[in-house]
Every structure is written in C-alpha cells, then in structure tokens.
C-alpha cells in the first residue's frame, strides 16, 4: 500500500487530481469512480482547473458512482447522482451520458444493485476509484462487519453515519435516508487503482487501523491491504496516529520514479 503524507487537503487534492489527469492522458476514455462528501472536493476543483487550463482533455472520460441513497425523489439535490453531476460532471464539461450510477429509486432495488455491478463489468471495469473513509473505517457505505467479498447491495446506515451526513440535510438527521445502495467491498477491490483521501484528526484512528491494523471486517477499509495498487493520501492530522509516519514520508520522498501516484 502506498501511503503519502501531504501538508493539507489542498495538496492532497492536487496530487490526486494530477494522477487522474495522467490516467486520462494515457487512456482518454478511462472510467473514473468518484466519491461524495466534503473530503474529495479539493480533488474535483483541482481537476476542473486542469481541464479549464487545457492541461488535460477529459471530454471522453467516463464517471461512475460509488453509492446512492435509496428512496430520495428523482432530482433531489442531495441524491448522490445530483451531487456528482454538480461537483464533477458539469465542472469537467462532460455530457451526462458519460455518467453511470445505481438507481436508488428503482421499484426493485436489489435488481438495480445486480444491474449496476453488471454495467461496471461491461464498461471494462473501473480504472481509478476514489474513496473516502468514515470515522468508523467504512468505505462507500460498507459499514463495520461488512463482508470483504460483498457486491453492490442495499445497506442500512448506522446511526453514526446518519449523524455524520446530517450536515448535508440542513443538520436534520430525520431527512437522512436509512438505506443506501453501495458498491460492495468485493466490487470496490476490482478497480485497477484505489485512491483513498483522508483529512483531519477525526480520521486518524480509522487511517491507522486501515494501514497498520489487521485486515478485518470491523474496519472495512483495511481490505485495501489486499489490493495490488492502493494509495492512501493523508494530511498531517489524519496521519497523526500512524506509527510508521516517518517511514512513509521518507519512502515517498525518496522514490523518484513515482510520477504522481
């Protein structure tokens, strides 16, 4: 696992955006898996800036969703489809047809989960999947004790996750749905490159358990240890509980063959 410690969220966003830009330069129709929430915003802002400056042509890139709320009405501003369109697809100047996501309003949600896994495979698989991490170590909405072989499926959100997400619903937890569709850990691990960004002291324990702890379902993100190309980018605050922080700083600084990630 590559662990890169950066000064702050802006530096992390720039580093990951350049890795995504480099991928798109090599493979113009790359399928980029995106995450929602506040953590990845610096990535999207930096990538959009590169597109606007002509540093990368993303016109053929494709975007896919990590997860989606179940039961929000079509067009709800906090559905993850709406968020991704607003924060990623539109700023990159992409057509909505380039965007793939699970149908959280489907009559048969389970069938929608199976269909999304199939669609990702038929699209050639995800080239780079962005991930955030919850304070309890969840990725996507794979909460603690999720199967490490799980596929895209319906999950019930924990109370803590609903509390964490209430800020996107005017602070009202009653508006936060109880269920989501999420790519399972097994599905996530099929992406060719996994890139997790974590910032802030509140993520420090989860980062330490993910990187240095045992692989265990109680910390779903620890499954990244099983992936052949997983990169964890953390700011100094999120790295504060890593026992090997100095080693990671030294390793990254002294590996000149790395271009980006």
Write the layout of secondary structure elements.
Blueprint: E1 2-6, H1 9-26, E2 31-34, H2 41-52, E3 62-65, E4 67-69, H3 80-89, E5 99-100, H4 109-122, E6 128-131, E7 153-156, H5 159-165, E8 179-182, H6 185-188, E9 193-198, H7 204-212, E10 230-235, H8 245-253
Parallel strand pairs: 1-10, 2-3, 2-6, 3-5, 6-9, 9-10
Antiparallel strand pairs: 4-8, 7-8
Helix pairs in contact: 1-2
GO cellular component, one term: cytoplasm
Domain Glucosamine/galactosamine-6-phosphate isomerase: 11-226
Pathway: Amino-sugar metabolism; N-acetylneuraminate degradation; D-fructose 6-phosphate from N-acetylneuraminate: step 5/5
How is this structure best summarized?
This protein has 261 residues and is of the alpha/beta class.
Query: How large is the share of residues in beta strands?
Result: 15-25%
Principal-axis shape equals globular
Domain count, please report it.
1
Helix/strand-derived category reads alpha/beta
The number of E-state strands comes to 10
> What is the straight-line distance between the termini?
11 Å
> Averaging pLDDT over every residue, what do you get?
94
Number of helices: 8
Q: Which strand order spans the largest sheet, edge to edge or round the barrel? A: 1-10-9-6-2-3-5
**Highest CATH level, the class:** Alpha Beta
